[in-house]
Amino acid sequence: MRPSVLDPLFVPITSLAGVGPKVGTLIERVVPADLGDRPARAADLLFVLPNTVIDRRNRPGIALSAEGQIVTLEVRVDRHQPPPRGNRSVPYRVYAHDDTGEIALTFFHAHAAYLQKMLPEGERVVISGRMEWFNGRPTMVHPDHIAPIDEAEGLPLVEPVYPLTAGLSAKVLRRAIGQALGRLPEFPEWQDDAFMRRHTFPSFGDALARIHNPKDPLDVAVEGSAWRRLAYDEFLAGQVSLALVRAKIRRLSGRPLVGDGRIVEKLREALPYKLTPSQEFALGEINADLADPERMLRLLQGDVGSGKTVVALLAMGRAVEAGGQAALMAPTEILARQHLSTIAPLAEKAGLRVAILTGREKGRERSETLEGLTSGAIDIVVGTHALFQETVTFHDLVLAVVDEQHRFGVHQRLAITAKGDAPDMLVMTATPIPRTLVLTAFGDMDVSKLTEKPAGRQPIRTVTLPLERLDELVERMRDAVAEGQKIYWICPLVEESEEIKLMSAEDRFASLKPLFGDRIGLVHGRMKGAEKDEAMRAFKQGETRILIATTVIEVGVDVPDATIMVIEHAERFGLAQLHQLRGRVGRGDRSSSCVLLYKDPLGETAKRRLSVMRETEDGFRIAEEDLKLRGEGELLGTRQSGTPGFQVARIEFHADLLEAARDDARLILSRDPELQSERGQALRLLLYLFGRDEAVRLLRAG
Length: 702
Ligand code: ADP
Ligand code: MG
Hints:
Elements: H1 21-30, H2 42-46, E1 52-55, E2 70-81, E3 92-98, E4 101-107, H3 112-118, E5 124-134, E6 137-141, E7 145-148, E8 158-161, H4 170-182, H5 193-198, H6 204-212, H7 225-252, H8 262-270, H9 277-291, E9 297-302, H10 308-321, E10 325-329, H11 333-349, E11 354-357, H12 363-375, E12 380-383, E13 397-403, H13 410-417, E14 424-429, H14 435-442, E15 446-450, E16 460-466, H15 470-482, E17 486-490, H16 505-516, E18 520-523, H17 529-540, E19 546-549, E20 562-568, H18 575-582, E21 592-598, H19 604-615, H20 619-636, H21 651-671, H22 678-689, H23 693-701
Bound molecules: adenosine-5'-diphosphate and magnesium ion.
The site of adenosine-5'-diphosphate has 19 residues, from α10.
């Protein structure tokens, strides 16, 4: 049951004054919470934070107010001048003065009675708005605020400006938020005292008050202590709930997987190379997890080409030694097949029975695989989403490896988990996710990193080239092909579209075909499975030397002797994607290059992206730069578009807090796993406020 102290905030917004069903729907659009099916509540309004402020502290007096300035004036009303009867096009004017001069307040389509009431002749009032000078005369058109002098205190001198949506007036929204704030009870503090002091955090209530009723523009700054306090609250709520979920998942298992080495030894013998030190290290960590009765939830992070697949294979070998089955899931069919072709020859030497299951396996082949999985005759299965289907049952799935995790949702992760008796889970990602994002995406997962590439890799030379100089490139490609090199050529779209005139893969193929004849192949997302396989096979075996491709090859494809990567319209790709694509070359011992073909003129961000690509091959640096560039992009745009999954926290500004929140959550739960202590009880409130109450339910379920 929700603690009753929260009740005043957990009412639908439509129960607030001035918020009917229509306004309610509009407000729901600006509420940052992911509402799902539920109606917005007063609590959600607390986190509708201002984009910026209007500073009304400037009070220069009428004569000294500059054109266009927002000013606040203290004036005496002199006289009203209504428009001539029947002529609505002339505005209603009210003249007023202060010590420095006279001003005309101008109202269009005014209600005379209202103006008489707000601006009684002879009275002193405070007005605030934008100053305009017409023919040397100061005016203010529709002042934003008008108040009698004795109510001037209530005027927001630093006025928060909230995100708006068409049809929703700022006043109505402000009033609703004000009511939500008014319903805020006195909460017990859920944050640690010393931590609060160190960061000069105000209390939750004070932070909200400061942001919604700022006294200074700094009060609403994203980097300011009020906003940071709320961001930390949100991070902590997220980290505590992830940790609770994880603890729950771990409680489900309790099966140590220990092997005798007979399979792993054979696999190692079959490898044509030695594992790198970080591969060995990661494997050590994984084996320790497998042997532990707690369930493994580990992220294997390694830049493109760092050799994650073999680590997964050895882990799966260990799982089979321990008497279970293992599954390796890939996000695309091409990748699943590639994994199979890597794994199958090695597995065969170790006596492992391996099968593949994708949407393409049909008929007898499929039913045999399904039977083999159910009976346990198959040790390792490689597949795609097809593995999640209900018809798939395992004899005893003990290890699930998920490759390129960012393409799979949490749902799918859970679906595969359900296929076994809480199998150990290894998630592999090639995207060098900065630590901060790992935390938001995966929570408190353990992380193993492959920090170096296999020995003998040559650096990749990266150049940028405007599309106009395509001819030079084609010349160089002729030479390269004559030398027996292999070239990827990536195009962004499959078909020519009217709006986006990008050269499509098919067009590019058609234009290069006359020059390269049989040496050029094509693969794209709309081709049939068998055609894709054939194109990949021909390229891998060297029958074709140039492969024109859409980004279907982006993830994981391994053709070690490909040496040139051409990316057309590189300016259209994100940094992470460019890095992924470039990682398809430079895998063998020959030196490789990457050509980023771009279309002039380049935008500022695109320019920066391409130069980052030229400067570095370090995936982590690239990921950090990516985050920065995106952060800046957001700064330039609206501030509203926050970090996905968060209401107030902004990863570009608050990343430092995220790590602290993770550690804090760990500590809290190690001392108080059921959140029973005084602080634990307060933290439950926090979980509710940020919509993490699912986790509280887990607590009760035990
Ligand atoms: P990724 O981490 O991008 O998934 P892969 O697992 O596809 O990388 O490996 C990239 C290439 O490196 C493959 O050709 C693989 O055979 C090779 N490889 C993996 N480990 C080593 C190693 N220790 N020494 C040499 N080559 C290796
Ligand atoms: Mg891979």
